[in-house]
Specification:
Elements lengths: L13 H7 L18 H11 L16 H12 L5 H11 L15 H21 L3 E9 L7 E8 L6 E8 L8 H5 L7 E5 L16 E5 L7
Parallel strand pairs: 1-4, 4-5
Antiparallel strand pairs: 1-2, 2-3
Helix pairs in contact: 2-3, 3-4
Length: 223
């Protein structure tokens, strides 16, 4: 594991700079819980998840979840993590539920607020009518790793019962939203994917599965 060069030196929009940078990190600082993972153990966990789906490692699920991470840590490290500890770990990586306002940079906040009162209700009603799943898609830069990596996550479900699925994908300012990730959202149902501003329009897949409907949120690069 090496140091990750800060992509902020590249030409990024304010929105992507605001949302990608700093959300994810290698959670290697001091911990109150002495049973938490060491930096070496966490790095090994990241290396195992990077570029793999759970099924590749004989684990259930199309995307990584808290349960899959617990099973991986048990088999790979011999460490039994609690659900609460995995939640804290994923939070440090940036795989967390965010309020829509938190998915916008200050320059986009007004546009996102208007979008939430105009476009979003129709998206939600359409998904409910067709018994489709609604997913909020975002990414966070995973700091302290090389090569560059992003934690791409999908949040679904009502408040209090949210589900988070994620993958660790190649990162960097030019990294596209992985088509394979979208195809794994709801293999047996239609998925309405609301994509935040951490990807520019040109970074979104031109073609996706017929079961996936993309809804890009307003951002600095989506005029």
């Amino acid at each position: 594991m090496g140091a990750l060069l800060d992509p902020r030196a590249s030409a990024l929009s304010w929105c992507r700079r605001e949302r990608i940078g700093g959300d994810g990190a290698l959670a290697a600082g001091p911990r109150a819980d002495s049973r938490a993972l060491t930096r070496t153990q966490e790095a090994a966990l990241i290396d195992a998840i990077r570029g793999h789906a759970p099924a590749d490692l004989d684990l259930p699920g199309d995307l990584w979840t808290r349960r899959a991470v617990i099973a991986l840590a048990t088999g790979l490290l011999g460490v039994r993590l609690t659900a609460a500890r995995v939640t804290r770990l994923l939070t440090t990586w940036g795989a967390i539920a965010r309020d829509p306002a938190q998915r916008a940079c200050p320059m986009c906040a007004g546009a996102v607020g208007r979008w939430m009162t105009t476009a979003y209700p129709l998206i939600a009603r359409t998904a409910a009518t067709h018994r489709a799943e609604l997913h909020w898609i975002g990414r966070a830069r995973l700091c302290g790793v090389a090569p560059a990596a992003d934690v791409v996550s999908a949040v679904s479900g009502p408040a209090g019962r949210t589900r988070i699925g994620f993958m660790i994908a190649p990162g960097g300012p030019s990294a596209a939203l992985p088509r394979d990730f979208l195809g794994r959202l709801s293999p047996d149902r239609t998925a309405h994917a609301i994509v935040d501003g951490t990807w520019a329009t040109w970074q979104l897949p031109r073609r996706v599965s017929g079961r996936v409907v993309l809804h890009p949120m307003p951002s600095c690069e989506r005029r």
